[in-house]
Amino acid sequence: MLRESKPNQAFYTEEVPAECTPLKSEVDRSRAEGWAEVLLYAASTGNAVALTQVHDLLDTLHQQKLAARKACTQPPPRPTAAIKARLRAYPNAAKAADVRPLPLSKLSGNRHVPTLTVATYLPFIRFKKEQSPYLSRVLNQKIRQKQKRVNWMDEMEGNTEMGVWEGEWEENILEAAEQEGKWDVKDRLEKEGWGEHGGGNGNGNVEKGWEHEPARMGRFISKDMRKEFNRAGLLADKLVGVVEKEKELWERERRERRVAKREAKRFEKGDGARKSKTKSMGEKKLEDWEKEVEAW
Description:
Blueprint (H helix, E strand, L loop, with lengths): L8 H7 L8 H6 L1 H14 L3 H24 L8 H8 L8 H4 L15 E5 L2 E5 L6 H47 L3 H9 L3 H4 L13 H84 L1
Antiparallel strand pairs: 1-2
């Protein structure tokens, strides 16, 4: 808010025109609005006092903004290199489908059966609930790639249809030239590749219609998508085998843990019986010794 203090007398009498000087009733009624308007007008005319007040006001607002920013400081941003490092795969890390299942000696604890999951068409196995940033990045990249290919397929289908229409239009032009007796025009267009006899697309590409190139690109994209689906199917079969082996090892190790636990309990129970028997024998020997002492 602009200053509400009473302006300098020299400011009114020397620099501000009489028609711009507010009356006392106006100042009393709307001092902020009237004084701000007069101050800005005087500053625009080059009045030194008005310019000083405007500069002081702007400096005050700037200092207040800086103070408010310091009072509401945000945590420092995380380094970009660390974020990018979390999105990259571990260097020289083997694929889970190639090295799993691991032996029990290489595990940090008991074995857990992984879960086979499919995101869109990409299968993967999950070993823990928290999904790694690297896996999220790979899944998002695959999803975007699939959507991009689908969009390309739709675009190529539309371009193929437009190419067919373009070929029909060329045929209509050639028929019109023939009906009008413009044989030289028809021969020239056919040499350039127009129509079925020319077998081109009007740009000198002989034996290729307008729909040829988008149709070829569509087949190329479809072939890539089929390859990706086949790779995903092979990977899914491989991961299913990994999950089954992990489950077999988990069941066998669980049985071994149960057997070891029973053996430990049996040993503790037998050890307690032995301790009790030894204690009773010691007490009996002590009683016999006391009797011998009394007999003496």
